[in-house]
Amino acid sequence: MKHTHALLSAALLCVAQLAAGSASATCYEHQGTATGDARWVVGLDGVGGTADDGSLQIDNALMRNIRPAECSGTYGCDIIAYRIQWFGGGWSDSFIPGHSDFHKRGDNSLVKGWSMLNDHSYKILFCN
């Protein structure tokens, strides 16, 4: 329930922005399996100002591949929140891009959460 609540909160924020006139978008939820697309793992060093910072904006390009009907417009789509399904079957807490989207691995290194969309099943809340 906690995980669904976080996605719902992100969706409500999107709706509130739409109602206030500060945003104009439609939001969707998508569940999928591992993408196998290595572009999700770009920029994993967590260091700003380096040549690999493209992972902070890569969601637009990759969402065009995953959901072309919703994301092929002029502005593409932005990921609002996402969850990762661990190999054991459980789900992560919600990751919010730019706020709470790093995951601590077993070796204590940090990776951008959406890098795991490359090899894990997932749920994404996105808006166009």
How would you describe this protein?
There is one protein chain. With 128 residues, the protein is α+β, with helices and mostly antiparallel strands. The protein has one domain. Helices cover 24% and strands 21% of the residues. The protein is built from three helices and five strands; from the N terminus they run H-E-H-H-E-E-E-E. The protein has helices at residues 2-19, 58-66, 68-71; strands spanning 27-32, 78-85, 102-104, 110-112, 121-127. Strands 1-5-2 form a three-stranded antiparallel β-sheet, sandwiched between helices. The chain has a two-stranded antiparallel sheet with strand order 3-4. Strand 3 (102-104) and strand 4 form a beta hairpin. The radius of gyration is 14 Å and the shape is globular. The two termini are 26 Å apart. The mean pLDDT is 76.
Helix-strand sequence: HEHHEEEE
Quickly give the structural class. alpha+beta
| Main sheet summary | 3 strands, antiparallel
Query: What oligomeric state is this?
Result: single chain
Which descriptor suits the 3D outline?
globular
Spatial strand arrangement across the major sheet: 1-5-2
Mean pLDDT: 76
Number of domains: 1
Number of helices: 3
Q: How many DSSP-defined strands?
A: 5
What is the CA-atom radius of gyration, in angstroms? 14 Å
How big a fraction of the residues is strand? Answer: 15-25%
Q: What is the CA-CA span between the terminal residues?
A: 26 Å
Which regions have little confidence, pLDDT < 50, spanning 5+ residues? none
Question: Portion of residues in helices?
Answer: 10-25%
In short:
This protein is α+β, with helices and mostly antiparallel strands and 128 residues long. The protein has helices spanning 2-19, 58-66, 68-71, and strands at residues 27-32, 78-85, 102-104, 110-112, 121-127. The strands form two sheets. It has a three-stranded antiparallel sheet, sandwiched between helices.
